[in-house]
Amino acid sequence: MNPVIDVLAASEIDHLEGLWGQLLAHHSKKAPHLAELGALRSPAESWRLRREQYIEWLREPRTTVLVARDGDRLLGYAVVRVLDAPGSWQWGDQVGVLETLVVDDDARGTGVGQALVGAARERLAELKVQVMKISVIAGNEDAVRFYQREGAVDFVRTLVMPVSG
Ligand SMILES: CC(C)(COP(=O)(O)OP(=O)(O)OC[C@H]1O[C@@H](n2cnc3c(N)ncnc32)[C@H](O)[C@@H]1OP(=O)(O)O)[C@@H](O)C(=O)NCCC(=O)NCCS
Prior knowledge:
The chain has about 160 residues and is of the alpha+beta class. It is about 30% helix and about 20% strand. The radius of gyration is 16 Å and the shape is globular.
């Protein structure tokens, strides 16, 4: 597939709801162990919260929502931000964060994800950012392989535990 990559305007954010729902379903399938700490939110509630976050992030001028299109059809999207994060490694004082990447179920395995990651990296390079962080839900090994093919390496390992009980 040869998708067209565009920047999505904040006013069009609701177009992402269906793809966000697919990502939620994917996480639910890949990480059932997390439900032991608390059930997954409903797709509508999860989107309501994520939508608010996107709108807040889009107030930062360097936040970008990239979409892959085939005509009128939305094939996937990526959200990338830039944070001030000077750290122990000399990666510059800002770091890019890939907040979301999802490709429509029917378009997976056709290079759409690669095109979106490529566009996110180009955007960050324009902003003089050297490194992009990515968080992957534990159990989503397909996505880890995908990112490693794109050049990603292991960074932080995040764990969660219940506070009481
Ligand atoms: C991970 C993802 C963004 C990669 O995008 P893509 O356009 O499918 O990328 P590619 O065409 O290079 O395919 C990459 C991987 O996607 C997976 N894939 C391919 N077809 C798939 C399908 N029909 N359903 C699910 N996963 C599929 C495969 O695991 C493939 O990797 P593998 O060959 O090592 O097994 C995309 O598969 C996706 O949206 N997955 C579900 C959501 C997700 O995991 N997002 C990342 C969250 S951090």
